[in-house]
Write a structure and sequence with these properties.
This protein has 269 residues and is an alpha/beta fold. 41% of the residues lie in helices and 14% in strands. It has an eight-stranded parallel barrel with strand order 1-2-3-4-5-6-7-8, surrounded by seven helices. It is globular.
Length: 269
């Protein structure tokens, strides 16, 4: 087992021009595999409600549910950093609620840092958390909720990542600098695009990580584990390339198990 990853190590990777890589996971087993694979950080994302539990809205996930997932990932990770998303609610309620939630996720969940969504809208919260010694992974960028303020259309068919240029890029650079000044240790840039993404990377000293809408122009990438391994019913029919298609492999395994059982053969495993 190599040395434990630190925030300072990720920041040094940016200075050295080395890419950092993270994965979004919510359970012990995937966390164990991710840690052994060599990811730099494991992000416990609030998308668990939609992607794992079949809910319709990300905002439905509660703090207690995030705590359960964070504890599971913490148990599975020895080397990588653990980042945990602040669910919708505490930040919107104000500094005191955000502070209490962050301390809970760190002290009881074992998180090494807290990711704050739409952080550019709440710089005072970021500043307050950092002031309490809580490392903040600050998310900003283009979402359905924020694209309008940049005058950029957003739809499922028309992702704005390629349009984040010109005046919009300048505004996004301002937001990135604001979050860096507030004390954020990493930035999660949603829908960066090559123009705005490269501009933000050059404008700040902290690592700029990209998930959705990111690319090689950033300091690092984070990918949903379930997307990387094609886990989920939708991957049975999807044409998108993944590093592995566990949905199809699982369907084949289940079909074979059923056939063995019905035929009176000993089942495997």
């Amino acid at each position: 087992m190599s040395a434990k990853v630190t925030i300072a190590a990720l920041q040094q990777m940016k200075r050295d021009g080395r890419k950092s890589v993270g994965v979004v996971a919510w359970d012990y087993q995937l966390a164990r595999i991710a840690d052994r694979a060599g990811f730099d950080f494991v992000s416990v994302g609030d998308s668990v409600g939609v992607n794992l539990w079949g809910r319709s809205e990300v905002g439905e996930v509660t703090l207690d549910e995030m705590l359960i997932c964070c504890r599971a990932v913490r148990r599975g990770v020895e080397r990588a950093l653990v980042s945990c998303d602040m669910p919708y609610g505490p930040v919107q309620q104000g500094i005191d609620a955000a502070r209490a939630a962050a301390f809970k996720l760190m002290k009881e969940g074992g998180a090494d840092m807290i990711k704050v969504d739409a952080a550019a809208e709440f710089p005072d919260v970021v500043r307050a958390l950092v002031g309490e010694g809580i490392p903040v992974f600050a998310q900003f960028g283009l979402t359905p909720q924020t694209a309008a303020k940049f005058g950029i259309p957003y739809s499922a068919q028309n992702s704005p990542q390629a349009q984040a240029s010109g005046e919009a890029a300048a505004k996004l650079v301002e937001e990135a600098k604001l979050l860096e000044a507030a004390g954020a240790c990493l930035l999660d840039f949603t829908n960066s695009g090559p123009v705005a993404g490269a501009a933000v990377v050059a404008a700040v000293k902290i690592p700029v990580i990209g998930g959705f809408g990111g690319g090689p122009w950033l300091d690092g990438r984070v990918r949903l584990a379930h997307t990387a391994i094609g886990y989920g019913e939708k991957w049975l029919d999807a044409k998108t390339d993944t590093y592995f298609n566990s949905a199809k492999a699982t369907l084949e395994a289940f079909t074979a198990l059923i056939a063995d059982a019905r035929a009176g053969r000993q089942i495997k495993g």
